[in-house]
Amino acid sequence: MSMRSWTSLASVAVIAGMLGLPGGAARAEVTLEVLYAFPSFARFHEPIAQKFQEQHPDIKIEFRAPVPDYDEGHQLMLRQAITNQLPDIYYSGFHLLRELAETLEKRDQIIDLGPLFEAEPAEWRAENYSETLLALGKVNGKQYGVPFNASSPIMYYNRDLVKAAGGDPDNMPSTWDELLDLAKRINDLEGDVTGISYDVQGWPDPWLWEAMILQQGGRMVDENNKVAFGGEEGMRALQIFRRLVDDGGMMLIEREQSRQLFQAGKIGMYFDSPALMRQMTDMSEGKFALGSTTFPLDNKEEGGVPTGGNLAVILSQDEAEQKAAWEFIKFATGPEAQTLVVELSGYMPTNKGALGPDYLGPFYEANPNFKTIAEQMDRSRPFGGHRGNAVRLWRAQRDIINNYMRGNLTPEDALQQLVTETQAVID
Amino acid sequence: MASAVAISAPRPTSRRQVLIEKLIGCGFVFPVCVLLLLLNIVPLGVLALLSFTDYQMGAVDFGFVGLDNFAKALGDPVFRRAVTNTLIYVAIVLPGSVVLGLFAAVLIHGRLGSRPFYEIVYFLPITTTIVAMAAVWQIVLHPGLGPVNAVLQRLGFEPVMFLSDPAFALPTLAVIGIWQLVGFNMILFLAGLSAIPRDLYEAAEIDGCGSPVDRFLTVTWPLLGPTTMFVIVTSSITSFKVFDTVVAMTKGGPMGSTEVLLYAIYLEGFQYFNSSYASVLTLIFLVFILIFAVIQTFVLDKRVHY
Fold first, then answer.
1. Is A2-151+308-382's fold the same as A154-303+388-426's?
2. Do B253 and A402 touch (CB under 8 A)?
3. Which of A308, B16, B185, B234 is the most buried (most CB within 10 A)?
4. What is the pTM of this model?
5. A154-303+388-426 — its CATH code?
6. Cβ–Cβ under 8 Å, residues A41 and A345
């Protein structure tokens, strides 16, 4: 990559010299290689790149073949770091940023975006970025990433089933106890209908598990890297998980299978990313009326939701490319690009300006379900990013939670195991 | 010089000829040896070297830790579970795919007109990509929407969560493994069957072997010995290397019940980035495969040749 741009730079210089042009007049074209996860996200990455290139004809965006998910992208980055084949811009999963930044930092293959932010006017930063969200891109005090896609879990529900069970689909319960009562009533309806699905035990990452702790105002790990969910919050989370199965009739199946059941109109309430809003809306059409609402909080003051998604990081070591990459990141996280992302997926916009009447205002007016995620934007809490290997940590936790939800462990034993296993991976 | 050669004529010439032939032979073998060295021996050496270090993927340096990784592997419950799961998987897939493959081959072998049809039908699973088929299996086995559970419920059974229940997941994957292998084994058996001379059957019939079962037991089965041995060796190695169905369908879950050896290695090496420990597990895996091949080749070899 940098090899190619060097040669093109050199050839431009040679031609400029031959024609006797002053050096500065000929602007070299910079090509940026960009890698993102989830191939289906091409639906917003491609149009964003296109718009950007229209505005910056001197910068060319080239996408590498997208990786299937964050974990695989992460592995690829660690491998390519060794062989020096890293892309210039990479969209890293929030929860993997710490490991990525700490590994690449030692090899000088990732850059701190702090100075680039500082070089911009302060009003621009205040107008566009929420400091809560920007904080998610910091590792050890350095701003390595700018949030691009962000989402926290929301609740999808089947308005018809809620109504049939005597609930009010326009005014859904906002605490877990009330919600589980409603789930029980839906589960008791005639037919093969399940009340609720909260697939914490089958989720590929600890998103829904952390959500259950954070919604009570708790936290996963304290500042001394000790497990912080071992008390009341952990116990309460496990009790809710128990009631999901006992009262809500939740089946312990794969996440995709749950989603298919919900889309077939056989589950009352279902938790997932707002990024599925477009798909859910299309799939439910003609089958049932789709509703969505914010994640229920037991602790309305301090409770929050873990915010996952991805952030853009610059991995190029070439100065001209870094400058171009910064321009691209500013655009991709700007109001125009973020409006596209929201309309084409359902994600939460990572740009404050995008919420305004010039951008998403009319869209939200027409599509109220898409607005749900924006309503819990100020409840965003960091997701993952603890010390220790994230995949190993979650596989250990998930097996304990699964075993407990199958009724093989008492809540006390399950919590004890969760604390011990978590601490072991963190240390 | 010329006379000296002429006196002891035959020997030096033939010796020289032998030398030339040997050199030519070496020349032919040389490229393969280089490839073998570069693609197999050197990586294996690196693997062995890594297993004595604490190297983590992406790290800038590493130190030697002696046999620590091996000691850890022997006491690691996750690794033991992976070994047990793999052995259970092999124990189901191996007899299942060999017996069914033989059964299908014997049945099809006698058909004249419809034989190609059955051959294609049984061979189809091998030509499909498992990632695509995994999606199909997931729908077929879906606890709420799948046809298998619809039939079970119609018959009055509770729906079975084939891929989500720790008790069912591994056997379910094994059945899919059998489905993948039967066609291939059938083709191998068919080849073996066509090599059996017709007149042996006629001779057996004259000697009083009338029923098809008798004919199978006295002629077909003994003469299929070498084929059977080959099928057993390849099937056990193939099923020992099970990985793709696990990745595509269960990712080692639920609760580690389908975490097989190769998947455990993949997790350590490419998800936990613990390259040195993954190297140790890979070495152990290679030893397993080697033992399989050696036992089967030497022990079974003696019993199948006449």
1. yes
2. yes
3. B185
4. 0.80
5. 3.40.190.10
6. yes
